[in-house]
Fold this protein.
Amino acid sequence: MSRLIVVSNRVNPPNPAEGGEGSVGGLAMALAAALREYSGIWFGWSGKTIPEFTGQLNMQRIEGVTVATVDLEETDYQEYYNGYANKTLWPLFHYRVDLTAYDRSFGEGYDRVNKRFAETLLPLIEPDDIVWVHDYHLIPVARELRRMGVTNRIGFFLHIPWPAHQLVTTLPRHKALVEALFHYDLIGFQTEESLQAFEGYVFSEVDGGKNERGELVAFGQRTRAAAFPIGVDAADFAQIVQGENARKVYDRMMAHSVFRKMIVGVDRLDYSKGLEERLIGFERFLHDHPDMVRDVMLLQIAPISRDEVEAYQDLRARLDGLIGRINGAYAEMDFTPIRYVNRSYRRDELAGIYRASRAALVTPLRDGMNLVAKEYVAAQNPDDPGVLILSRFAGAARQMKDALIVNPNSPEEISDALERALSMELPERKRRWEALFDNVSREDVTAWRDNFVAALRARPGSDGDEPEKPALERQATVRSLDVAAKALKAGPEAKAMRA
Ligand code: ADQ
């Protein structure tokens, strides 16, 4: 069987000392689970910067996964990561044109780093490998690899939404970005909605079409595109919640919330997650239900994220003010309505927190999928499950129809949903949870990964696993020259990995 090479901006190997996960972030969770199963390599940025780019590969074997990382220059970091990825594509793809920076140097940095990634990755690719590139940081990787002669199957998965056509065209280089996607054999989106938005762009902006095999055709190229909704490792989550650490956390939470129903929110501190709107909705609930004020408590966990970007610093300051205001207005000497925590938790601790919560508020303004919604469901007690309140703008809302679906922009809708969740009788809670759990277990991270990889392996129009395209002679030559050159640069570790 061919190897799988996963390419993502950050490489976060699972770390057993941290409850089995290396870092906060849905992408890291999903990829760690994928690489546990397939033999392969995980390639990406080390997270370190150096004065001048060297292309030096750092290879390690962690928990059965071969990890290959490369350091970036400080300018790369500013233009590519803080710049084009986090100040241009992220806000724009989450419908925040007001926060989008259209700085030319960011785009140039983005292209430069993608080329550097491709050049560094090239010697690791063997003829039978399939390459799976992840997320908006790395859209041009396939184009660069193709330019160097790589003919392997290369797939791309976008973890965030693909926005409406009118938004994409605000990018000065939108055609180049979309053209770069056509160098992939397969493009995966989280939802049908994102897929349709992408097709809408292709049909109306670049005069593209679909051929009889269902492939998208534009820029003199063709590719396949489909929706692959990402899931969580539901079985694992349901199991870790029974473990000792999860139980301890659960007991602590229950002891601290005596006689009060806990509502939980768990999000990276990001403007797409609708944290301010959620708090205003909770404030509305306290205002509208004075009789319930002493019966509830909101635990908002929000680890700080991308704090070098101004929009994130501003959001953090606004949240501090808002929470202070609400607590100031509603707290008593022996009770505070909102507990706000800016730290990360181990996965098993999170599981215990989810289970101790009578309701979860998952109310992003836009979200590719949202894994917290699925984790919350996976961690519930089947005999006494909590209620999921979910934004209609999370990709997850397409699958999780038995949640209480709300418009996160409406404080009234959030307030009403809270009232409904907290007073919901056990039979309705169970019925809703069973339907949600069934979906979360069936459409889990394994199904996501297997479906994507199978589709990438299959030839268009076929429904089976077929051999990949034979490597071109040119590709083999380019590669062997480069392998020799890079091996000299990279030193004995990298040579051993390739042997
Ligand atoms: P994210 O925007 O990071 O992911 P999400 O899908 O909710 O959003 O995943 C967050 C992950 O981080 C969850 O697994 C959660 O448990 C974890 N996490 C959050 N806060 C934590 C904390 N305090 N401590 C420990 N862990 C914490 C991007 C897209 C999403 C998409 C995913 C996967 O933005 O839309 O669902 O990728 O494709």
Observations:
- Residues 16-25, 464-499 have pLDDT under 50 and may be disordered.
- The first strand starts at residue 4 and ends at 10.
- The two ends are 18 Å apart (CA to CA).
- Residues 24-27, 29-30, 159-160, 230, 266, 268, 301, 303, 344-345, 350, 367-372, 375 surround adenosine-5'-diphosphate-glucose (CB under 6 Å).
